[in-house]
Structures are given as C-alpha cells and as structure tokens.
Task: inverse folding
C-alpha cells in the first residue's frame, strides 16, 4: 500500500570532522558551566549594587535587596504554604502543555503532510498565533467561569502554536528514503506513522515543547491573578496586598528558578532523544 507524506528534499551530506575526545568535551562543558556561573554572579552583584549602593538610604528600592530575598525564601520554603502554591502552578502548567500536545501534534502532522491543508490553515494559524493569550482572559472567564478551567484554556492556547508549527516542519523535513522504504515494505499508513513519521518528528516536537514551556511560564503568573486562591501568581498578589516586599522579591526568584529548571529539563530531554536517534 502506498504512503503519501509531504517531504522536503534530503539535506546534503556534511563531511564529518575530527572526532572530539571525551576529555576535550568534558573540559568544554566545564568551561561553559563556569562562564554561566560567572554571568549569574555578575547579575547578582549588579542587583546588590543597585539596591545597596546606588539606592539612597531609606529608599523604597532597599526593600528588594538580594540578601533579604534569599533569607525570606529560606523561611518561606519551610514555614509557609509556598510548596503548595508551587505544586499547584506546576500542575496547571503540565495540564496546559498536555492539552497543547494532544491538539497540536495531530494537527501539525496533518498540516505538514498536506500542502493544500497547509495553504488553507496557514493564514488563520498565523493570525491566531499573534493574539496574546492574555487578551482572551475576559472571554475565558465569561465562558468558563472562575477557577482552573480558564487557566487551562489560556495556557493551552499559548502552548499549542510552537508545538503545532514545529511538528508540521518536522514532517516536511522527513527523509524521503525512509518513506520509500516503508512503501517498499507494504507498510500501512498507521505503520508508517508509528514507525517512521512519529520517530522522525519527535525531535521537532520536543523543540516546540521547549518553546511552549517558555511561553506558558510567562503567561501563567498573570493567569493565576484571575479568581483563584492558590498558585504563584496568587501568592505574588497576596504579598503585594500585605506589603511584604521581601517575600515578593523571593517569589520573583522562585519563578525564575522554576522556569530555568523546566527549560533545562526540556533541553536535556531533547538532547537525549537526539542522541538516541
């Protein structure tokens, strides 16, 4: 049975360079890590200088010093509901990303396969993609009510576009030889999809997932300021209402750290899949 998947011409072969020894690769990785830590140290020094040296005595900015933020963060981690708020936010992110994957991957496969479908949907997708997810907040609340459901919708809407477009691009870049081999073995459409197409586009899907994580993490905090009683966004509003400035700064650190860890996990998964392939 013949299988028709839209593909691009195979890329030209690139001559292989000299193999890199494990010790050289280790030294290069250590150098990159050292440079990254040095960059973070410079950022921390600039933060401290801005709040302690440049700000005048008694200035409002002195409430946001890094020392007070780190001290407060240690207290919040052990003597507050911060872990619960973190888990609630992570649960919302995972559900939003899951919905985006369920919607974006199948549509991306269909769009990448069919040039006609791509031409028909590309203007609409590009139009919707450029609308800020936060623009839908009032409509989401009116239709879905307050609580978690409008947050899931907004997060999924924000995450679906990078996943969909990356999946479609992955289908277009499939090696034609793989599809010809599947056709020569009389593979059915389902067999070709399962054993050729999905493994071939997996790296692109993970790249789209990493981009989606960055977008979702940015959208999450303002979404959680919308009629909920838990989450990082809610906790930030609570610290503002209580004028707890050191706690507010500590929450900014938590959001940045969690976002960094989520992105690192996505990068690690992408490298693992690429290495296995």
Result:
């Amino acid at each position: 049975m013949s299988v028709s998947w839209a593909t691009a011409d195979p890329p030209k072969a690139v001559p292989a360079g000299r193999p890199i020894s494990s010790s050289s690769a280790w030294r290069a990785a250590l150098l990159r890590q050292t440079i990254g830590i040095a960059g973070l140290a410079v950022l921390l020094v600039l933060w401290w200088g801005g709040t302690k040296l440049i700000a005048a005595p008694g200035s409002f900015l002195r409430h946001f010093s890094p020392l007070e933020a780190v001290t407060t963060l240690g207290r919040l981690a052990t003597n507050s509901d911060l872990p619960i708020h973190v888990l609630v936010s992570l649960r919302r992110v995972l559900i939003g990303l899951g919905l985006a994957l369920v919607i974006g991957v199948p549509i991306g496969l269909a769009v990448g396969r069919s040039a006609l479908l791509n031409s028909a949907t590309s203007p609409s997708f590009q139009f919707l993609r450029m609308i800020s997810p936060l623009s839908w907040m009032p409509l989401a609340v009116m239709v879905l009510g307050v609580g978690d459901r409008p947050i899931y919708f907004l997060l999924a809407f924000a995450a679906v576009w990078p996943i969909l477009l990356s999946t479609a691009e992955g289908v277009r870049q499939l090696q034609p030889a793989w599809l010809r081999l599947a056709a020569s073995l009389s593979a059915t459409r389902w067999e070709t999809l399962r054993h050729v197409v999905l493994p071939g586009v997996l790296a692109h899907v993970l790249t789209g997932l990493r981009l989606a994580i960055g977008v979702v993490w940015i959208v999450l905090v303002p979404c959680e300021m919308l009629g909920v009683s838990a989450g990082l966004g809610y906790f930030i509003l609570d610290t503002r209402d209580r004028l707890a400035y050191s706690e507010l700064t500590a929450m900014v650190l938590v959001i940045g750290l969690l976002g960094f860890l989520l992105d690192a996990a996505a990068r690690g998964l992408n490298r693992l899949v690429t290495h296995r392939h």
